[in-house]
């Protein structure tokens, strides 16, 4: 058997893992590089030429893991967890990207899929994208664990730990190492973040929240803390549409929880409107509320200000700091918000594993060999994991 990391031994995002047995060849993840919006990556036997791959498996719906699946040759089956596929399709609709035309096979977590002599079993893993999976790959008497992106400080921490114990010892661990370059020993937990959010909810009458809508854990943290302080909660249309495909237990009742249809979506075509906007909302939600906002909602926020619905407000930025440095539009949005007298706060915890959790992972699955991907500093993994295989992109590791 052979393992090749086509991309990802020295970059965060856009990782592609290839596993080849005597009679099957599979890939795990096929998404965009974080810097690349042009989708320029091509692979012989996958996106062009005679197909060499028997299947492609996707760990979760973040664009750096799923974003290029449309390019895969028609005759190669692509497997995506069922909610993750719905989330990806909704994200495409809202971001103006084309919907997938390629037929995708969906799978349920914990159901094993057999591709010739390779058995792939998806397990739920804690990450900032709903129903993220890690894969156990069994083939030729070897057991490989591919974690995908993961962490052990979110709402699925216990389930993930139990899953790792069920999986037990593996021969090869292929793991993400995002935090090795950021050198973070321990991130704060999602529960801790919810407590801190509560303080802002108490202090301010209006709390605007900027977070990634696919991070359902975070939506829950903010909704719970808002409701606890007697505030109403307003989901933006995108977050609301996603919440309907997942089991979030948050019911829009127009008493405490409302939906806001941002102005920009009224410019969308009729198909979009009939699919996502064909329901009545109430725009009366009082003066004490928390609300999800996006960069594209500046005009909406100005409208609220004109109506006298912003009096003592803050904006909580709950995403990775790096986006502020990278994205000019985001910086301009934050400046405009500050100019409106809205205070700017940051409250975030990562979707990626901290170093202490990597140590836990290593202890539980006790791998003979470890390959680190999704990192800019895999060398640092030497102090954390057993038997580091120092692979460069495209080098082949034979088992
Ligand atoms: Zn990623
Ligand atoms: Zn991710």
Quick description:
With 399 residues, the protein is an alpha/beta fold. Helices cover 28% and strands 22% of the residues.
Task: Write the topology of this structure.
Elements: E1 2-7, E2 16-20, E3 25-28, E4 55-57, H1 63-66, E5 78-81, H2 82-95, E6 105-107, E7 113-115, E8 118-124, E9 133-139, E10 142-146, H3 157-167, E11 172-176, H4 178-182, H5 190-203, E12 206-210, H6 216-228, E13 232-236, H7 237-243, E14 257-260, H8 270-277, E15 289-292, H9 298-306, E16 313-317, H10 322-326, H11 328-339, E17 343-346, H12 355-365, E18 369-373, E19 396-398
Parallel strand pairs: 3-4, 4-5, 5-6, 10-11, 11-18, 12-15, 12-16, 13-14, 13-15, 16-17
Antiparallel strand pairs: 1-2, 1-19, 2-3, 7-8, 8-9, 9-10
This protein binds zinc ion (2 copies).
Q: Report, as a whole number of angstroms, the end-to-end distance.
A: 5 Å
Strands in their spatial order, largest beta sheet: 6-5-4-3-2-1-19
**Ligands bound to this protein structure:** zinc ion
Contiguous uncertain segments of 5+ residues = none
Helix share bin: 25-40%
CATH topology assignment of the largest domain: Metallo-beta-lactamase, Chain A
CATH architecture type of the largest domain: 4-Layer Sandwich
Gross morphology: globular
Spell out the CATH superfamily of the largest domain: Ribonuclease Z/Hydroxyacylglutathione hydrolase-like
